[in-house]
Recover the amino acids of this structure.
């Protein structure tokens, strides 16, 4: 069975004063009602930067990029502008452009851990896990208490199947931020990958204590209970995951597997059909479908 793997890319929020200034500029634009009049009041790179921040905060990434670009034309040596334009590219899903801007920002400010971290996220989303690990490592060198960098480096290690390093990173992240549910969740997935089901269940349980609405933690604890042969507990957890997200095809399939293991083929058939209704191309549900058909269900 497949496991849902989730990580959180933690973006640092801009300073409150930046947000307030951006909000005021956007408000002035709305009141003026004239792009021409508004444009006449903008003269500095800082003005364009704050306007770009306002658009980025509302999710208008194309406009944000346009204004950050105007700011860069007026001030091409300011790392923070490249960094925020990179963030806008990242949020658009244009990771190549984000990497280019983060790289320029690093050239201008090579001691900013957050920029290495952010470029690591972009490399990771591009599937370049070695480059991501290198950037997270540099971020940690610059800021040894950067818990998010340990968390996200672990994700790249897991993709490289280097589970021992992934677990070590997540253990450090937990030491730094013991109330962060995602680190327990991610360490649980790493423990599953090395068949250490007891530790995995303990970590998923702690993730659920910290975030009782985490559908993926219930899903994966249920999955792990199934691997351990605790099918009744698997059914309970998968049912809660489905309650939290009725469109979770994985949870239906995991519960179907547990029902099959307990001989409840009728309920397993219902769950497999639900999984395939949500995702008709879901191969693992198709495999269970074929097994049930062979049993006459």
């Amino acid at each position: 069975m497949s496991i849902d793997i989730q990580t959180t890319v933690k973006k640092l929020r801009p300073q409150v004063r930046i947000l307030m200034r951006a909000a005021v500029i956007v408000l002035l634009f709305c009141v003026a009602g004239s792009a021409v009049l508004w444009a006449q009041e903008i003269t500095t790179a800082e003005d364009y930067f704050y306007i770009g921040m306002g658009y980025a905060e509302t999710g208008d990434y194309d406009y944000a990029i346009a204004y950050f670009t105007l700011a860069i034309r007026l001030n091409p040596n300011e790392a923070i502008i490249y960094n925020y334009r990179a963030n806008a590219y990242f949020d658009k899903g244009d990771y190549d452009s984000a990497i280019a801007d983060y790289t320029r920002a690093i050239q201008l400010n090579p001691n900013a851990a957050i920029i290495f971290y952010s470029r690591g996220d972009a490399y990771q989303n591009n599937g370049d896990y070695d480059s991501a690990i290198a950037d997270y490592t540099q971020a940690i060198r610059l800021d040894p208490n950067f818990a998010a960098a340990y968390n996200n480096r672990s994700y790249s290690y897991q993709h490289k199947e280097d589970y021992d390093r992934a677990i070590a990173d997540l253990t450090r992240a937990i030491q730094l931020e013991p109330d962060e549910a995602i680190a327990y969740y991610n360490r649980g997935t790493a423990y599953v990958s090395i068949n250490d089901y007891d530790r995995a269940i303990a970590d998923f349980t702690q993730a659920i204590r910290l975030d009782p609405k985490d559908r993926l933690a219930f899903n994966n604890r249920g999955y792990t209970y199934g691997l351990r042969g605790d099918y009744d507990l698997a059914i309970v957890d998968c049912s809660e995951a489905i309650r939290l997200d009725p469109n979770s095809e994985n949870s239906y399939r995991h519960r179907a597997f547990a029902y099959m293991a307990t001989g409840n083929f009728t309920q397993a058939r219902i769950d497999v059909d639900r999984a395939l209704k949500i995702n008709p191309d879901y191969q693992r549900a198709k495999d269970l479908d074929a097994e049930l058909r062979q049993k006459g269900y």
Remarks:
- Residues 53 and 194 are 44 Å apart (CA to CA).
- Residues 1-39 have pLDDT under 50 and may be disordered.
- The chain has 17 helices and no strands.
- The domain at 1-132 is CATH 1.25.40.10 (Serine Threonine Protein Phosphatase 5, Tetratricopeptide repeat).
